[in-house]
Amino acid sequence: MASTFGKLFKVTTFGESHCKGVGAIVDGCPPKLALTESDIQPQLSRRRPGQSAVSTSRDEKDHVIIQSGTENGLTLGTPISLYVANQDQRPGDYSEMAKIPRPSHADFTYQMKYDIRASSGGGRASARETIGRVCAGAIAEKLLKEYAHVEIVSWVSSVGDIESEAPNLATITRDQVDQTIIRCPDAKAAKSMEKVISKTKDDNDSIGGVVSCVCRNVPVGLGEPIFDKLEALLAQAMMSLPATKGFEIGSGFKGTKMTGSTHNDPFIMKGDRLGTKTNNSGGIQGGISNGEPITFKVAFKPPATIGQEQKTATYSGKETTLAAKGRHDPCVVARAVPIVESMAAIVLADCLLQQRAYL
Amino acid sequence: MASTFGKLFKVTTFGESHCKGVGAIVDGCPPKLALTESDIQPQLSRRRPGQSAVSTSRDEKDHVIIQSGTENGLTLGTPISLYVANQDQRPGDYSEMAKIPRPSHADFTYQMKYDIRASSGGGRASARETIGRVCAGAIAEKLLKEYAHVEIVSWVSSVGDIESEAPNLATITRDQVDQTIIRCPDAKAAKSMEKVISKTKDDNDSIGGVVSCVCRNVPVGLGEPIFDKLEALLAQAMMSLPATKGFEIGSGFKGTKMTGSTHNDPFIMKGDRLGTKTNNSGGIQGGISNGEPITFKVAFKPPATIGQEQKTATYSGKETTLAAKGRHDPCVVARAVPIVESMAAIVLADCLLQQRAYL
Amino acid sequence: MASTFGKLFKVTTFGESHCKGVGAIVDGCPPKLALTESDIQPQLSRRRPGQSAVSTSRDEKDHVIIQSGTENGLTLGTPISLYVANQDQRPGDYSEMAKIPRPSHADFTYQMKYDIRASSGGGRASARETIGRVCAGAIAEKLLKEYAHVEIVSWVSSVGDIESEAPNLATITRDQVDQTIIRCPDAKAAKSMEKVISKTKDDNDSIGGVVSCVCRNVPVGLGEPIFDKLEALLAQAMMSLPATKGFEIGSGFKGTKMTGSTHNDPFIMKGDRLGTKTNNSGGIQGGISNGEPITFKVAFKPPATIGQEQKTATYSGKETTLAAKGRHDPCVVARAVPIVESMAAIVLADCLLQQRAYL
Amino acid sequence: MASTFGKLFKVTTFGESHCKGVGAIVDGCPPKLALTESDIQPQLSRRRPGQSAVSTSRDEKDHVIIQSGTENGLTLGTPISLYVANQDQRPGDYSEMAKIPRPSHADFTYQMKYDIRASSGGGRASARETIGRVCAGAIAEKLLKEYAHVEIVSWVSSVGDIESEAPNLATITRDQVDQTIIRCPDAKAAKSMEKVISKTKDDNDSIGGVVSCVCRNVPVGLGEPIFDKLEALLAQAMMSLPATKGFEIGSGFKGTKMTGSTHNDPFIMKGDRLGTKTNNSGGIQGGISNGEPITFKVAFKPPATIGQEQKTATYSGKETTLAAKGRHDPCVVARAVPIVESMAAIVLADCLLQQRAYL
Asked: Does the beta carbon of D54 lie under 8 angstroms from any beta carbon of chain B?
């Protein structure tokens, strides 16, 4: 199991859905960065389940504790241990799950790979694993802001067939994104998305969607060709999130339909720096940031766990049906927004430190 | 510069477009694997430029030499050094390039990152860098075949707007793929693609496309969650290739428009193993291979270097125009086919060795 | 700060002397290994300060909690998070230390490297950091025992000028080692060592010593030449411990005075395996274990913190004197015994998993 | 096989004793460093066998070629491929070696680990592997000199029982070291050493020795605690060299016999920096360089291959005798001098780059 990401800014996450707790160690964070739990909690709260009007009762959850690595509100340059206690330790009735692997979930593959798996919930494949990433991402963001004024904003750009208008990439903020529950800054599309999700929920079904992201003020020169091209690391980071099916940088798959003469980004002066007129490159050329906003998209599939009855088979191959009990998230994209931001921050922080070694 | 990929099966590439030579070291290949240059040359020849009828005169190029790591046709378990001499060392007139960064190429970002760059050609960002990957990939394929009968086949699934019919994923072979110059097994689509490329060439322009890939007989259990999920490593590997803009596993972005009830892959018995009826997962669940074919797509943008005159600016920001001289590849996808296969093989070989450590 | 060790069996430690707690994450431990806190606590208790008759009052300290990675007493193959709360969080009067770097301690270099340091105690350079290593080492030992019946025993072989007789390497046990407080199995030497330490303590001074170690039943073939030769990894592991000044494998520095004809270990049959008659190699040849016991020694300097008044200078270079207050360990070797065993176990476990990848 | 060393300044070596060639790739060297073959050749020539008066006839050997990574005498920031052709490819009669593993050599362990090994010479365990390290080390030295005026000088401090007087660590130069064939700057001891070696040679035997090293002008702050303490990395680097049995930093094993009051290095002002009066620490405290000279020693055993007849056993356990044919090096320490310097340079260059990331 590869639970560590990064070369200099190294993040190691731990924790299953129903063990004592989850969290991360961030090793390689520079010293003397202002850091307390209050820098981390906001993004952690944004990733929490049940944030819509109907579910504020769960507000008390997922409080992070910094166990090491800071003193008097400053980082020491030593490993920062981050811990979030699990509320539900080993509860529930999962006897059915013991026999039937959930379709398109990780039950079957974990069982085959490890010959054992957490008896309840998704274990390590649970979305709770992303708590450690979000904690680490918040620290990465502090670093990026202090060193380079980097701003990272994600939003939901589609749910099912509903696509939003693109926001103004130069100005879009998290506050604007959070205006709608679905975290789509296009209010009209947001309303349609919420309707689709509501209907999907009523159907005991789930639906996929796309999260878009822009990273502004990224210094020129980040990314380490050949194998650690900036877009390659972003792709790995995003595709390492649960439920992701695709990644696009800049023009993405649409770019494959274009000609070079329309796709190429001509150089022009932008104030005192050489920039590009268009940004089909998505802010990266040759694996290295070029000073333009980094733009990418991440595809999330419909959640695998649904209330609808599905025909499937037991581990031993016997035909059966499965209908998940309890409440399940019909669409993950709104919660994925801070997680995507966190992974982007971790990638950029690591690349920033690497580049500083050579300046 | 991060020129090493892999944890146990480790590939390090080297070489610019116009230095003495290019190649790779493969460290961590198991001992006693049958290996000579003839195992590597075929894929290397498939990636060569100018393989269509009009350009066979360049056939003599890119012969690989194994410099270490084998004896009497068997690997020793020691590093395998692979070398391909460059034919064109430091030639040509690149004085124009010294002043004008090519739009959407790596000239500008290399210059900004390193404050120096190879004076001619793309340097390390050149497609010649992929020679090392293809050599290493051929060795990875030998390993995968011997240990697990893995088969990897890529093909061109679209060029510009022309999309091909999907081939039979269970049977498609490289021979079938190589029936057309464009390496699209759908003969009708291939003809249209070739027309589009021909027209694009006449326009001194370029065009993008998509390469698809299937990996068959991949053992269940490969891939290391959390950060080294199999799809995350494939995404990194593919997005580390020059000119890539997107990656999709299984259903990809189309999967975001589906509901869970239609996207989920129900379990069914397939002979004596538990398989899935559909394969929207693309052969991977929870970051771990599930025994179904692994299927993914890679988006390639139109090549940046075009003969058409483009408005752009010099390094110092002065407006100018640039029209590339000489012959340039109007579409890279046909040549990308063996490169995609190679990177897939490297990822799978590394994951296979890692999984063996825990069996 | 490089807080992670290992390639497949990866250990990441965290924690300062006076933060909330210390511990480690073990990532890459194989699944289905029997593991509870009771497997870890014994070694943790052996490393605890104050274990002699006079100090049993501190017995309650340093209890480990497994926070993730196991269920029903079995490892899941997921990261194992290990946590030990600090008893003394941010106490004490360290105002003097703020101005005067302790000679031969890490105060000065941490301050220079990080431009900040933990205000009290040794921070990350404290011996408490080794708690995480000992927890991880206990897990490594479980793995080594289950997979290969490996036995690792360390003891104190010298304190100051007092050298012990070598124990029987084939039979020495931890129980025998623990017969004396100083953990020297040569009872007579032990008595002399204890006298020397007692006198040193009375002098408000400290004294160095040597810890020896034997690893039995190590399978042939462990160690990864070139840079990860088994003795090189052991050397790194041991020299990464606080207060170490030297490392010897097999004949060590004495071997430099020998001729090849006396130093070489001739091959002979031992039961059904080819062994060596002597073991100047220390169980390793060409960086790879040869099936003989692995034997090495680690030099520990006298602890830097002493009660005696020392002439030294403040950070700003003003001459001053420093005499440490409170009780300080006059000799670390007895406590170092389980720590050396732990690091040896971590190295061997990692090499064992790597070798399994190629079998 | 772990043939890569370093985190940012990464060195990967390749090559057996009798394959086409040996060498290394250096990835992560900063751009715009002046570098041609003439910067590398001197150290390479110093490591060559047969440099004494009697053997200058072999002078033509081991010429390095830079295959990539530089242009017009400057590094590009891209991988530097270094190649040295082998003169003796697959020659000689090694039929005896096929049946009898040489005592204390790597034949047996390679065979057991890999189930195959190079049929002639030491294969990858041969001293020729160090050619790649020396090439890379020369580049590391260029970097260290340009960035920080670091000076690294090694010498032979003992051969067998003959110990030299310590040279002046502040002024000793390579030229002074090279005044004697044995590379011991104490001329009287050198004479005795040469006599001992000469006698050993006459006896068809071999003898061990110790190489000492000082690194001057190392900036304060290098080394990454916890596991990558500077002395730990130096220990790994040195113990990864063939034939090494021990490593000491600063006071080494002698330090274990001292008391804290005599071992501690008091702080004093040295010009405008805070230094230490003594240097038992060997220039490192808490794993971090403190600005004083870094001093360490490396123990080399007597070479295993000797002309004397040895009683030993065949692979199948049959008693036999073995007497190596041909000329063999009776003592490796003189040739080890530049190799030790090279590994020290590689470690320091990597740590220097890492520290720059955080400045």
From this structure: no
